[in-house]
């Protein structure tokens, strides 16, 4: 019996050393207090010896997955310690610079548009002679008031003017001095006063007016600052046929006392100058002035009315203002 007990004791003694290596296999639990130390220590300190990695593997042991028993907060802390987070890109700034550039360019375009529009308006409103580089000497044209009676004096199908011929007299231009000895639009001129324009043939021409049925005579006159004197006479007859007959006779048989020698002026205003259709113009130019003044005159036939326009100036009478006056008077008779 003694031998059996000894054998049993020996067996127990020899079995105890074999059980020792298995006791430390239980891995201690990780507590929150031990997280910093666990994160800093390598994984090999707590894990049992592992088989040596193959030569081709280059991953460090620290990258091995944490124990499944670790809480999520510990996993996040360990990941942040092992892999520091890369810096995040800055958020894009709002496009203020682009907006400011658009506003600046828009303002610049508006400024140039306003300036250009103002300059264009100023150029269109200015007179040609007032523009630098375009200033040219005036051609002598006169500044007349607006012809408000244009259209009112047009003849009817029978050739009669429906407006008082005194209202169809061309008004004096700017700067001109009206002649108070002429009745203008206030009264009529006598046939005998008109006949005196023909000098010694005054009586003959006064009778000619009566024979052709002249009903009334309107007259006006003015003097320009340069000394040019203009006279306008409107003779209204009973019909357009009588007016045409008188005009044919007077230009054939009579001459003005102040222009005994005259020739027809070839540059006759026409439709291109605004002369109404059916209006006849016969202009004349004194050849050799018989006195100190030079005359230009023209007969205008429009329906039942014959107009006589005379311009006189010392030395020579300018053609442009005379032609302008004749054209405007013809338009008024329309």
Q: Would you give an account of this structure?
A:
The chain has 334 residues and is an alpha+beta fold. Helix content is 33%, strand content 15%. Strands 1-2-3-7-6-5-4 form a 7-stranded antiparallel sheet. A hairpin with a 2-residue loop joins strand 6 (293-302) and strand 7. The longest helix has 30 residues, at 96-125. The model is unreliable at 1-67 (pLDDT under 50).
Overall pLDDT confidence = 76
Measured as a percent range, the helix fraction is 25-40%
CATH C-level label of the domain at 165-263 and 271-333:
Alpha Beta
Q: Which class do the helix and strand fractions yield?
A: alpha+beta
Features:
Protein Transport Mog1p, Chain A; 8 helices; seven-stranded antiparallel sheet; alpha+beta; 33% helix; elongated; disordered N terminus
What can be said about this structure in brief?
The chain is an alpha+beta fold. The chain has a domain at 165-263 and 271-333: Protein Transport Mog1p, Chain A (3-Layer(aba) Sandwich), CATH 3.40.1000. The protein is built from eight helices and seven strands, in the order ααααβααββαββββα.
